[in-house]
Amino acid sequence: MKNNFMELRQMTYIPVLRLKEKLHEGELEWDEEFSRDKKFYTVEDLLDVVQMSETELQKALERMPVITLNGYVRMLSAEFHDRLLTMLVDCLDDDEEPGIILESVGLECLKEALKKHLPDKNIPVEAVHWLVETYCDVVKENGTETYHINEKAICRAKISQLLRAAVKFEYNIFEKTLQQILPLGVEFKDEYLEGLAFVDDELTSGRTIRYLNVEDLPEEPIKRLELLFSLRQRWEESAIQQYLSDLCPTKRHLNELLVNCCRQVTTVNGEKLLVGLKEMLL
Description:
The chain is α+β, with helices and mostly antiparallel strands. It has 3 domains: 59 residues, no CATH class; 72 residues, Arc Repressor Mutant, subunit A; 95 residues, no CATH class. Helices cover 39% and strands 18% of the residues. The strands form 5 sheets. A 3-stranded antiparallel β-sheet has the order 7-9-8. A 3-stranded antiparallel β-sheet has the order 10-12-11. The protein has a two-stranded antiparallel ribbon with strand order 1-2. Helix 7 packs across helix 8. The two termini are 22 Å apart.
């Protein structure tokens, strides 16, 4: 009797699920009230409860909506994040805020605008700095720094806001609605959907789009592939790659995962398709 064994080698990615779970325990809410049930963590505390080096932790935190407040690492709640983003977009489209435009976002102007529009809200200055650093590029000219709106970053954030509001959209309605909520002068590009949404052509309802953020998918490769094959029975490698980018940082890692885990067929045109998990993994 011949036994076949499959070895799944460890991927070169850093699992962040436990880190997110810990940070969610002490989220910074928009209407924050003191609660003894909330648990706050310093960087040192987090290093004690997550399996990461300090460098890995810092890199993971840089990709999350977090600030350091009173010595603690605080994740902004989805509402806090969305409200800050909405205020930034409103200011960009407000003729009465000449210091906040696509080509130049004045940090002090933004702070003053937030105070003016939200007089009863004490927004931490750290959150304002995070907002600008996340959605702007720093341009240095003649010894001065200017913040320019990053079109891709702000467009992807507004796409996320819109898609999270419904199970799915007809694609043409999505495009029209998105253009209405983007700042004037910011244009949507299909490439901004990568790793953020799932676009499908359905026989009954036509082209649709739904929220599918790679950051929210299961960290276990097999579970992630199961989810993806539940959405679509046949995948081209180029289409599925965007949902595996964190697990497979290189082409070699991607090929290794797909060869080890997926059944493949070749069409009459010579195109390779992924058609499901290998039976031994089911």
